[in-house]
Structures are given as structure tokens and as C-alpha cells.
Design goal:
Length: 323
């Protein structure tokens, strides 16, 4: 069965969003760039490399929980439709697809991602691997296009990889509320959370000795160079990862190695950086198990299960839309 792909991220819309984010973020203090602009083709490849690094534990811990609990998840959800937010290559998805296929109920898979090329490739592979499964992809942005996700059926929505941690506290509440608004009573939500732990381990996960994470971080500057005719020299910005103990999140920064001026022709602006001046490019919030249920309940999601890996590094929750 040929996959169907709905594309809502058209070049003109993406260009408008990038221009607004860069103009606003570089005028702010401290300067800031949203992490969604990491993910061009090179950025997606670098992140895939990061997930395989020895110190980057979240991917392995999440896979451990999925492998152990997926049959229970498939049975409890009763899903005939799986909706995956931020599906990427859909590699881990196969664990869930296999379990839901085994129940005899699975009819449809809906991957949602911002990368059209990545989603197209994954959709074709999965349609071939699961004959009879309807694959209906949606290329969109979390902040604008969740309402475009197909309705109907008994749905299991998934957001894996600890992506929920990339939202600051208030934005996270808004995002969860938007997800809940797309759900019908009885739909389930499988959500991955990275847990608070020793801050040295947390920092190591975001600052590998081979510099893969540093290259990923600097890639946002290359994206701006290419798409907005800027003249950032990425090597003149040092990668920095640090743990904010008050907020309980990791922050990634790019710190200017020297005083320099950057011109962004596409915006008609120049930006002066002092030596040592930083740009924040990402946060990755870490969670405590006792706080997760109340956050979900605030948007009408009743948490039914919370599972952790053997070391207690990571959690998967299954919640159900009430009402």
C-alpha cells in the first residue's frame, strides 16, 4: 500500500518562520536560537550519530523499556492507529508496530515530522515492511500543525526520545494542552522523559569528547548561513553544555571565541558579539517521576503507568485521555 504524505511545511512558510526566529532570537538578551533549526539533513545525521555515542544513554534506556513493556503497551492501548510525533527515521517505532501488529488490531501508522525527506524515506520503508498497513505521514511543525493529524480509530500517540524536555516549562504546558486537544476520549499517549540524575553524567551526554554534539550545535549557524546569507564562522563559536540546577535542565550554548561582527544579508542586519558572549540553542529538561502525573493531569491526561529502565535513568509513561 502506497503511503500518503500531507505536507504543511512549504518553503515560503519555513523561510518566514526562520527569519522571525533568528531576528527575534539574536536581538534578545541572552541571545537564543530555537533547536528546531538544527535539523537540516546534516543536522539529522549528526543527531543520529549522537544517539549511538557511549555517554548518550537516553536512546538505549528508552529502547530497553520499550523492549520489555511493549506487549503490555499494545494491549492496554487497544490501538488500531499509531501516531508518532517527531517520528524521524521511525527506527524505534518498529518495536511498537510489531507488538501492535501482533494484536491483530493495527490498521494505520501516522508519522509526524518536520523533515519531509526523512519522513518520506521512513514511510516508504515501513509501508514495504508492513503490507496492509496504511501509512499516512504529516510534515508539519509542533507549534502549528498538530490539528492536521488524522482523526478516527483508537489511537496511540507517541512522543519518544525525551523530546518533551526541549520545551521550557510554560511552552511545555501549552504543547501538552495542544496534543490533548487533538485526542479523543480513550486515546492513549506514550511519552518519554529523561530523569534527573548526577549532573556530571547529564553534561557528558551533551558534550562528547569526539565533538559530534559540538558539530550538531554549530550546525544551526550553518543553516542560517545557507538560508539567510549570513557569514557566521561556526568554528569561532565554542560548544558548551551545562546543567542548571534550579531549573533542572541541560542548556546548550554557543560561546563567541572573540569579539566579532556577523552579517545576515537575508535579514539586512549585523550582530556584534563580544568575546565570550553566548547564544543559547537548546534546553533539555530533566524530570522527577512524582511530578510527571500532575503535569499530564493538568491537560486531562490520566497517567496509568510509569516504567523506568533498570538504572532509573529514563521513564516511559502511558496516559489516557479522559472525559
Amino acid at each position: 500500500m502506497e503511503p500518503v504524505i500531507d505536507v504543511h511545511l512549504h518553503p515560503e512558510w519555513l523561510d518566514q518562520q526562520l527569519r522571525a526566529d533568528v531576528a527575534e532570537g539574536l536581538a534578545a538578551r541572552p541571545r537564543e536560537l530555537p533547536p528546531k533549526w538544527f535539523y537540516d539533513d546534516r543536522g539529522s545525521d549528526l543527531f543520529d550519530q549522537i544517539t549511538r555515542l557511549p555517554d548518550y544513554y537516553p536512546t538505549r534506556r528508552e529502547r530497553e523499556i520499550l523492549a520489555r513493556e511493549v506487549a503490555v503497551i499494545a494491549e492496554l492501548s487497544g490501538a488500531d492507529t499509531i501516531v508518532e510525533l517527531g517520528s524521524g527515521t521511525s527506527e524505534k517505532t518498529r518495536i511498537v508496530l510489531d507488538a501492535c501488529t501482533a494484536t491483530g488490531r493495527l490498521r494505520r501508522y501516522v508519522p509526524f515530522d518536520s523533515s519531509e525527506a526523512t519522513l518520506q524515506a521512513a514511510a516508504v520503508e515501513l509501508a514495504a515492511a508492513y503490507p496492509g498497513l496504511a501509512v499516512h505521514g504529516v510534515v508539519g511543525d509542533f507549534e502549528h500543525h498538530l490539528s492536521a493529524i488524522p482523526a478516527g480509530g483508537c489511537r496511540l500517540l507517541m512522543l519518544l526520545g525525551g523530546t518533551i524536555g526541549n520545551f521550557p516549562t510554560e511552552s511545555r504546558k501549552d504543547f501538552l494542552a495542544t496534543v490533548a486537544d487533538t485526542m479523543a476520549p480513550g486515546d492513549c499517549f506514550l511519552l518519554g522523559f529523561d530523569l534527573v540524575k548526577d549532573h556530571h553524567r547529564l553534561v557528558a551526554a551533551y558534550d562528547d569528547p569526539d565533538g559530534v554534539t559540538a558539530a550538531f550545535n554549530r550546525n544551526v549557524l550553518s543553516v542560517i548561513n545557507r538560508r539567510l546569507e549570513a557569514d557566521f564562522d561556526p568554528e569561532q563559536f565554542a560548544h558548551e553544555a551545562r546543567f542548571d540546577a534550579d531549573e533542572e535542565w541541560i542548556e546548550m550554548w554557543l560561546r563567541s571565541r572573540r569579539a566579532q561582527r556577523v552579517t545576515i544579508e537575508g535579514l539586512g542586519m549585523s550582530v556584534d558579539f563580544a568575546a565570550g558572549e553566548p547564544i543559547r540553542t537548546e534546553i533539555s529538561a530533566k524530570f522527577r517521576p512524582e511530578n510527571i502525573g500532575p503535569e499530564l493531569a493538568a491537560v486531562g491526561l490520566a497517567m496509568e503507568h510509569l516504567w523506568t529502565d533498570a538504572q532509573g535513568d529514563y521513564a516511559l509513561t502511558l496516559s489516557r485521555m479522559t472525559g
